[in-house]
Design a protein that fits this description.
With 385 residues, the chain is α/β, with parallel strands linked by helices. Helix content is 29%, strand content 24%.
Length: 385
């Protein structure tokens, strides 16, 4: 019987969290994942997916993307073949989809973190997990700045001096906002961390389940461009199977901020730019253009036509299926070929028409499509006793 209701720690994998978290809210998530797994009929494929779902986060996210795709196409009325053989190729795509007079291959891919970035993230997570167990229960901590050192931090030593600092403060006199804000800087072995103290209201002080870190304000302001990593993942799949006789759809899984599809548009159709030109009267004008660095290229010389479409699945989480940002991007030369699929799945479709991109809303609501009640999961994720 599960009894641990604590939120996910920084070092905990997604599977470890889902496997140990107690409560009806999370049991609904586990039940749904098991129901989807049970629809995988071949035992070898079932065991493969189950094993990868229980692995580290990279494997878990990739496996859940494949499980989601399996369910997505099954519910659309297709027959889904997992890892079918392809004539003339030793490689096997993730799926062969058949039905409604159509057949196409689907290959899933997900950009992974760089090894150096992954190591830095692990060191950061271990440090923050250690700080969560600060003994002073009168304050939360705001992490205002963090420079991760080249080696694992002496987290226990940091926790002791932070506790000592917090013990000198009066929670009734300290304010997080305003001139009475209290800050503390810890430095050692290439690590630098700056914290502010956030007093806890009197009625909630001293709780045994206290987790010290309350605010993460350490993120640097930077210009983020996810297009290159998306393009790299797509290129690895473009010509993997040669001419199969069936369209190939690449399902691209990401966890990025892209509600306006800015990153995806840049990746597929090139970055936006401006051309300056002067007319015969000496007047200067500007024209918005797309750079020729998109995965689909530019007209009339479209690129990567071996990929019939990119199905972009962004922010897919088992407990927020209805919030996943799913977009079907048909290749400009094959848009009519995918009308049937576009009308069957809960995905926005973006097509190119007369040098413009047009978005068509998903034809079906994801709650209805996946037979989910609204809200789902029902209840509170972390109820306050």
């Amino acid at each position: 019987m599960r009894v641990d209701k604590a939120p996910k720690s920084h070092l905990e994998t997604s599977y470890q969290f889902f496997d140990r978290i107690a409560g009806d809210y999370w049991q609904q998530v586990r039940d749904l994942m098991q129901t989807w797994l049970d629809r995988v009929e071949i035992d070898r494929d079932y065991r493969d997916l189950r094993g990868r779902l229980a692995a580290d986060d990279a494997a878990h996210y990739s496996a859940f993307l494949e499980l989601y795709l399996h369910e997505l196409f099954c519910r659309a009325g297709y027959t889904v073949h997992i890892h079918p053989s392809v004539a003339g190729s030793p490689r096997r795509p993730d799926f062969l989809i058949e039905g409604h007079g159509e057949s196409f291959y689907v290959e899933a891919t997900m950009p992974g973190p760089q090894r150096a970035a992954q190591g830095r993230s692990q060191r950061r997570s271990a440090f923050l997990d250690t700080l969560q167990s600060c003994r002073n229960r009168n304050f939360f901590l705001s992490l205002d700045r963090l420079i991760v050192g080249p080696e694992p931090a002496k987290g226990a030593a940091a926790r002791r001096v932070i506790d000592a600092w917090l013990n000198t403060l009066d929670p009734d006199q300290v304010h997080y906002d305003g001139p009475n804000r209290e800050s503390f800087v810890w430095e050692r072995d290439g690590w630098e961390a700056e914290f502010s103290a956030i007093p806890i209201s009197k009625e909630h002080r001293g709780r045994p389940d206290h987790r010290a870190l309350g605010v993460y304000a350490d993120g640097d302001v930077e210009w983020i461009d996810n297009a290159p990593s998306m393009q790299s993942a797509l290129r690895s799949k473009a010509n993997a199977y040669g001419d199969t006789g069936h369209p190939l759809i690449v399902a691209l899984g990401t966890y990025i901020w892209d509600r306006d599809r800015w990153h995806a548009t840049n990746a597929l159709y090139g970055r936006a730019g401006v051309t300056w030109w002067e007319n015969g009267k000496g007047e200067v004008h500007t024209t918005e253009v797309r750079q020729p660095d998109g995965y689909f290229g530019i007209p009339p010389d479209w690129a990567n036509a071996s990929v019939a479409a990119v199905l972009h699945v962004n922010q897919l989480q088992p407990h927020h299926l209805h919030s996943a940002e799913v977009t079907l991007w048909p290749h400009p030369t094959q848009q009519d070929r995918l009308d049937g699929l576009a009308n069957r799945i809960p995905a926005t479709t973006v097509t190119a028409d007369d040098s413009r991109l047009a978005a068509t809303n998903a034809p079906v609501d994801p709650f209805k499509y996946f037979d989910l009640p609204d809200p789902w999961p029902a209840g509170e994720a972390f109820p306050v006793d």
